[in-house]
C-alpha cells in the first residue's frame, strides 16, 4: 500500500515539474493602409518551464490565414519562408521581430489602423492554446 501511494505521488508530481510554461510578451501587429491585405505580427515567446515546446499553429480575428514566417537573406535576396513549427526551448525565449521570425496575416478581414486590437490565438504542441490581444501600431 505504501509503495502504491509512493508511485501515485511520483506520477502525480513529476509531470508538474517537467512541463513547458509559455508566456507571451509585447504582442503587436503592424498597421497597414486599408488597401493592403496582409501584415505581420510580432511578440516575445518565453518558456519558463523545463521542457521544450513548439508553436504549431496561429489563428486570429483579423485574417483568414495566419502562418509563421522567417525572413532570410539568400544570395543578397531577402525572402520569407514558411515555418511549420517553431521550437521554444525550455528556460529560454524566442523573439518574433521585424527582419526575423514573424506571423504573417494574410487575407485581412479588418482595417488595421493604429490603436486597434487584434486577437491572436497561438497553438502550442504541449501548452495548447494561448490567446493574446495585440496592439495595432506603426512600429515598435
Ligand atoms: Cu512573412
UniProtKB/TrEMBL annotation:
InterPro entries for this protein: LpqE-like (IPR007410), Lxx211020-like (IPR058248), PCuAC_sf (IPR036182)
The protein's name in its UniProt record: PeriplasmiC protein conserved in bacteria with histidine
Species of provenance: Persephonella marina (strain DSM 14350 / EX-H1)
